[in-house]
Amino acid sequence: GLGPALLLETVARSDEEKTTAASLKAVETTFDRDKTVAALKSFIGRVVVGMEACPYTKSVDISAVGLEQRGVTPGPVGYRYSPTTDACMAMSMFWNCICEMMSEPDANLSS
């Protein structure tokens, strides 16, 4: 089946916006996947686990712990990476992740 849809209304970018977008795009090659994922895991560890922002996430690797009686199987936390600086591409990546979560069993990718 089809996943969620996102409709964006756009207009042509001005020369200034094109220059800004090009300079941001040039920076994308400097992003480091491993460092970015490590920073995200650190945040999850400090806030989501450490401050108990989600009572069902007990580690940076496994989530949905304690929900088995409600039919939810614990599974791995999914960390996805995209080096984009473009808002439309970031939203596209987000929706792709949502579709992935909807299509995977809990044991493969925790919700």
Task: Describe the protein.
The protein is 43% helix and 4% strand. The longest helix is centred in the middle third of the chain and has 18 residues, at 33-50. The protein is built from three helices and two strands. The chain has helices at residues 15-27, 33-50, 87-103, and strands at 62-63, 75-76. It is mainly α and 111 residues long. Strands 1-2 form a two-stranded antiparallel ribbon. The chain starts with 14 loop residues before the first helix and ends in an 8-residue tail after the last helix.
Secondary-structure blueprint of this entry?
Layout: H1 15-27, H2 33-50, E1 62-63, E2 75-76, H3 87-103
Antiparallel strand pairs: 1-2
Give the low-pLDDT segments: none
First CA to last CA: what distance? 19 Å
> What count of helical segments does DSSP give?
3
How do the helices and strands follow one another from N- to C-terminus? HHEEH
- Please, what is the average pLDDT? 90
What can be said about the biggest beta sheet? 2 strands, antiparallel
Strand content: under 5%
Helix content: 40-55%
Q: Sum up the overall morphology in one term.
A: elongated
Number of strands: 2
From the alpha-carbon coordinates, what is the Rg to the nearest angstrom? 18 Å
Q: Tell me the quaternary state.
A: single chain
Strand order of the largest sheet: 1-2
> Which structural class is indicated by helix and strand composition?
mainly alpha
Task: Write a brief structural summary.
With about 110 residues, this protein is mostly helical. Helices cover about 45% and strands about 5% of the residues.
